Amino acid sequence: MSKRDDDYVQWLKSQSMLQAARDRVHLYAGQSRMWQHPYAETRARDASAIASVWLTVYPDSIITEEGGSVLQALSHERLWHSLSQLGIQGVHTGPLKRSGGISQRAFTPSVDGNFDRISLDIDPRYGSEAELVYLSKVASAHNAVTIDDLIPAHTGKGADYRLAEMACGDYPGLYHMVEILEADWGLLPDIPEGRDAANLTPQMCDELRARHYIVGQLQRVIFFEPGVKETDWSATPPVLGVDGRYRRWVYLHYFKEGQPSLNWLDPSFAAQQLIIGDALHAIDVLGARGLRLDANGFLGVERRAEGPAWSESHPLSVTGNQLVGGMIRKAGGFSFQELNLTLDDIANMSHGGADLSYDFVTRPAYQHALVTGDTEFLRLMLHQMHAFKIDPASLIHALQNHDELTLELVHFWTLHANDSYLYKGQTFPGNILREHIRSEMYEALAGEHAPYNLKFVTNGVSCTTVSIITAALGIRDLSHISDEQKALIQKVHLLLAMYNAFQPGIFALSGWDLVGALPLMPEQVAPLMVDGDTRWIHRGAYDLADLAPGAQVSGEGLPKARMLYGSLNEQLEDPDSFTSTLKKMLAVRQAYAIASSRQILIPEVNNPSLLLMVHELPAGKGIQITALNFGSQAISEELYLPDIGPGIVVDMINERLEGELSEAGHMTIHLDGYEGLSLRIVGSAGPALSHSPGA
Q1: Residue 161 included in any domain
Q2: Same domain for 279 and 240
Q3: What's the distance, Cα to Cα, between the start and end of the chain in Å?
Q4: Residue 468: partners with Cβ closer than 8 Å, 6 or more residues away
Q5: Which of 352, 550, 585, 591 has its CA 20 to 30 A from that of 118?
Q6: Which DSSP letter does residue 648 get?
C-alpha cells in the first residue's frame, strides 16, 4: 500500500471503537473495584429501587435555547424543577453517541436514528462529553440517575467496519462477514453507483449457502421492504485491503444495510471487547447508572441442515447477555433489554443477563384493550407472563417510545404458532390468534379510520400515544379537536398511564406523552422516510421547559409536534392538567411503594372492559387493587376475592372510602367510562405467593 493509505489506516484506528476499548483495559486489569458488586444474578428489584419512574427522551426531538445544545437543554434547572415535582427518578437519554458511517475521512449521517453507533464520543450535534457528565450530576442532585444505551448486536459503517473491509488485523472478526472468492464474484449483485453495498436476493443467499459461504436466509427479515431489503445479507464492491489485494465481502445485518451485525463467537473475541469497553466507558466516564441493551436478542446465528438459519432463541444470545449484564453489575450499574421476542426468550435471557426487560409482553395487549374495549387478550398475556415466570417487577411498563407500536406478536408466530389458546370462548392456534389481533389493530389504528397513523413495514404502526387514543375514540380529523374531545383524550391517556404505573416494576413515559404530542404530517418529514421508515411521524420536536417558546423545529430540523397539553411549566400551574393529575398518581405510587409490590392475582371478570390486578404491598401496607375500565360505558361489578382477608376499601388517589371487602371476599366497584382506581384494602392479608396469579 502507498504511504497515504498507511496514514488512512492509522487515522481509521484512531477513530475505532475497538481500539478505544482496548486502550482502556489497563484501567481495570487487576483492580479491586471490579469485585465489589454481585454480578451473577439479575437484580430487577434493586434496579427499580434506584429509579422506578423514568422519562425517556429522543435527542433529535429536543428543542433547545438558541445556540444551546440538547444536553444543555436536558440539564436545565427549569426542566429539573418540573421533573422533580412530577416524580421522575431516571432519564433515559436515548442514543447520543456519534453514529452513521465514514466515507473516506468524512462522517456520514445515521441511517437508523443514531442506532448505528461508530464512536464512544458524544455526537457534537447534541453537545459534549463534559455536558453529559454535568447532566448526570444535575440528575443526581435531584435524586435521579441517567440511563445510557448499549448496542451489542451491531455498529454503523464507521472506522471499525472500514478496517474490517480492508482485512486489517482481527477487525473482520468483529462482524458476520465472509470473503467471497474472486471466481464467485459473479454470484454477487452489482453495486449501484454511489453505494457501498447491495442487498442479496433470496436466490443469491441460497446459492451462497449451497456453496458453503454463509448460513443462508434467517428466520425473518426485519425492516423487510421489496427492492430495498429482501434478505439480511448484503455484498460489498471490491475493496482494497491493507495487503494490497482487492476483496469482496458478504455481511450480515439484522437491521438496515448500514448496521453490520457483530460476531459474538469469533476467535478474536473482538465484539466482546468493543461492547464491554463501551459499557464501562458509559458508566465510569459519562456517569450513567443504567444501560439499555438494544437488539440484544440477535447475537447468535447458525446454519441448519434444512430451512432458514437459526437466528432467534439462540443460546449464544443468552451467553452474550450474561457477559454484558454481569460486567455492568460488576461495575455497579444495571441494564435493561429492549427485546421484542418470545416470552421464552425474555425469560431465558433474564437469567444472568439484563436486570430488566421492556414490557413487550403486554404493550400491544393493553393498546388492544383500548381499541376494542375488551381486556381478554390483555388478561391472556398477563397470565402468559406469569406462566413463563416473568415477574412484572422485572419489566419496564411504558407509554410511547421512539419506535413504532409493535404488532409483531413474535411469541405467537415462531415457537408457539401451533399452541392452543382459549380466546372468546374458542380455541385458536397461536398463529391464527396473532393474525386476528393484528387485523383488528391495523384496521382501527391506520388507514381509513386513522389516516394520521402509518403502518411501519410489517412490524406495526407509527403513532403517538395520543393518536392511538384518538383512533380508538373514532376521531378521524386531528385538525379539529374540541375541548370536550381533548378532555376525553386526556382521561384515556391517564388510564393508560395508570395501567403501566400501578403494577410492580418501572413506569416509563416519554416527552411526547408529557406534552400530548400528535403525529407529524408525512410531508413534514418526507426526506427522512424515503426508505419506508415511517417512524419519523411520531418523533416530532417538543420543548418541555419553554426554553424557546417560538421555535418551530428542533436543532436537528424535526418540526415541532402539535401538542394537546403544552409544556410542563404550563401544566404544573393547572391542577386539572395531564401532568398535574399524573403527578398526584405518581405520588401515591411512591408513597405505597407499588413498584416494589408483588402481583398475586389477575381475577376473571364479568364485564369485558374491566381489568383487575391485585398486588401485595411491601412493609405490611395491605392489598392494593388496580381497577381499570377500558370501555366508554360506566360499569359496576361485584368482585370475589376469596383468598384476601376482609378490610375497609380506600380510594388511594382521591382519599375516600369505597366500601368494604366482606369476610366472604365480596365487594362491589363502580367505574365511569375510561376510569381507573387504585384501591387499598386496609388490614387485609394476601394469599401465599407460591402460585401464579389466576382466577
Answers
A1: yes
A2: no
A3: 72
A4: 367, 370, 371, 405, 445, 453
A5: 352
A6: E
The total number of structural domains in the chain stands at 3
**pLDDT, position 4:** 47
Whether residue 2 is predicted with pLDDT greater than 90 in this model: the reply is no
DSSP symbol at 482:
-
Domain identity same for 26 and 48: no
- Distances in Å between the alpha carbon of 400 and those of 136, 359, 376, 472, 528? 23, 12, 22, 16, 20
- pLDDT, tens digit (0-9, with 9 covering 90-100), for 386-431: 999 999 999 999 999 999 999 999 999 988 999 999 999 999 999 9
Render pLDDT for 562-611 as a digit per residue (tens, 0 to 9): 999 999 999 999 999 999 999 999 999 999 999 999 999 999 999 999 99
Distance separating alpha carbons of residues 444 and 460, to the nearest angstrom: 12
**Whether 228 and 136 share a structural domain:** no
Distance of CA 390 to the CA centre of its chain: 17
Residue 86: how many CA atoms within 13 Å on its side-chain side?
A: 33
How does pLDDT run across 194-236, given as a tens digit for each residue? 999 999 999 999 999 999 999 999 998 988 888 889 999 999 9
**3-state SS assignment for residue 461:** strand
Could you give the CA distance from residue 666 to residue 660 in angstroms, rounded to a whole number? 8
* Residue 650 domain boundaries: 598-682
Q: Are residues 640 and 607 in the same domain?
A: yes
Q: Is the distance from CB of 346 to CB of 364 less than 8 angstroms?
A: no
Distance CA 144, CA 686 (A): 32
The CATH number given to whatever domain includes residue 627 is 2.60.40.1180
SS (H, E, C) 290-348: EEEEECCCCCCCECCCCCCCECCCCHHHHHHHHHHHHHHHHCCCEEEEECCCCHHHHHH
Contact by Cβ (8 Å): 328, 183: no
Beta strand segments in 505-634, E: 506-510, 598-601, 610-616, 623-629
Q: State residue 693's pLDDT score.
A: 65
The whole-angstrom separation of Cα 206 and Cα 217 is 7
* For range 361-382, the mean pLDDT: 98
What pLDDT is recorded for position 1?
40
| pTM of the full structure | 0.93
Burial (CB count <10 Å: 0-12, 13-18, 19+), residue 602 = buried
Last residue of a domain, one of 189, 217, 252: 252
